[in-house]
């Protein structure tokens, strides 16, 4: 008769035993634990006290538009909203197309979407209700675009190959939409600031620096000594200098 294989017993440790074993196992561990508890209490109590009694949160609510779009013309704010709608729609389509064979709205995704919805609804307190409604519309647009992208992805299996050229074309469309020109009122580059400028510079830097970084990495492994040393010198120079110094020199020069 075949012998039955018995599983090892599951050892369960009570919380009190775990604390004693990991936090109060020796006298110096006990001292470190007590000191750490008092330190965390001091930091947490000070942070809570500052958050609810001293911090001036009204400044953030009054300047949210400045934080997001800076000096962008008020009468042209429909352009950033339209750009956000385009990004959300294309992002939802890409999500649905890439996950065409998976359950799109699983428990994790539903929790994330629900958390975003609650957060956007609570944002109506420091910002305008109109902006919160528009953000909720963007969230709904993301959901419907993801569902539509999944349906399209199941019908056309090669649709995912067209995502990267569509995103590339969309990037230039968004630049035209935000900056103007070609039948649109031009916005000066000095008016770009806030979060919108941060996102634009981040995207441009990532897109341009990624292939350049690959070339430098290959050049560092080159058998030609000139290419190898030039690549190493450039990599070490940029890595060793603070970014603020590079930006300052670029502005001065």
Notable traits:
253 residues, mainly alpha, 72% helix, single chain
The percent range for helix content is over 70%
Q: Based on the structure, what is the oligomeric state of the protein chains?
A: single chain
- End-to-end CA span: 87 Å
Overall mean pLDDT: 78
Overall shape: extended
| Rounded radius of gyration (Å) | 27 Å
Q: How many separate helices? A: 11
Q: What ranges have pLDDT less than 50 throughout 5 or more consecutive residues?
A: none
String of helices and strands? HHHHHHHHHHH
* Class derived from helix and strand content: mainly alpha
Quick structural summary:
With 253 residues, this protein is an all-alpha fold. It has helices at 15-22, 27-54, 58-62, 64-69, 78-98, 107-122, 129-155, 163-179, 194-220, 225-240, 243-252.
What does this protein structure show overall?
The model has no long low-confidence stretch (mean pLDDT 78). The protein starts with 14 loop residues before the first helix and ends with a helix. It has helices at residues 15-22, 27-54, 58-62, 64-69, 78-98, 107-122, 129-155, 163-179, 194-220, 225-240, 243-252. It is mostly helical and 253 residues long. It has eleven helices and no strands. The protein is extended. α5 (78-98) runs antiparallel to α8 (163-179). The longest helix is centred in the first third of the chain and has 28 residues, at 27-54. Helix content is 72%, strand content 0%. Among the domains are: 75-188, no CATH class; 193-252, no CATH class.
């Amino acid at each position: 008769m075949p012998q039955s294989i018995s599983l090892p017993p599951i050892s369960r440790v009570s919380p009190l035993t775990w604390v004693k074993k990991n936090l109060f196992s020796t006298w110096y561990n006990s001292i470190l634990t007590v000191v750490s508890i008092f330190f965390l209490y001091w930091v947490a109590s000070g942070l809570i006290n500052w958050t609810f009694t001293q911090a001036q949160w009204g400044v953030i609510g009054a300047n949210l538009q400045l934080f997001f779009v800076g000096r962008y013309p008020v009468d042209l704010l429909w352009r950033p909203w339209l750009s956000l709608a385009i990004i959300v729609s294309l992002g939802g389509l890409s999500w649905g197309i890439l996950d065409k064979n998976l359950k799109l709205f699983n428990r994790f995704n539903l929790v994330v979407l629900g958390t975003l919805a609650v957060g956007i609804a609570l944002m109506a307190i420091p910002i305008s209700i109109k902006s919160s409604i528009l953000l909720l519309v963007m969230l709904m647009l993301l959901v419907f675009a993801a569902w539509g992208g999944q349906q399209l992805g199941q019908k056309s299996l090669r649709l995912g190959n067209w995502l990267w050229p569509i995103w590339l074309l969309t990037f230039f469309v968004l630049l035209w939409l935000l900056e103007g020109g070609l039948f649109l009122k031009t916005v000066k580059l000095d008016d770009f600031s806030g979060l919108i400028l941060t996102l634009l510079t981040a995207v441009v830097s990532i897109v341009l620096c990624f292939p350049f970084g690959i070339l430098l990495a290959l050049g560092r492994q080159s058998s030609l000594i000139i290419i190898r040393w030039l690549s190493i010198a450039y990599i070490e120079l940029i890595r060793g200098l603070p970014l603020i110094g590079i930006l300052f020199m670029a502005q001065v020069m």
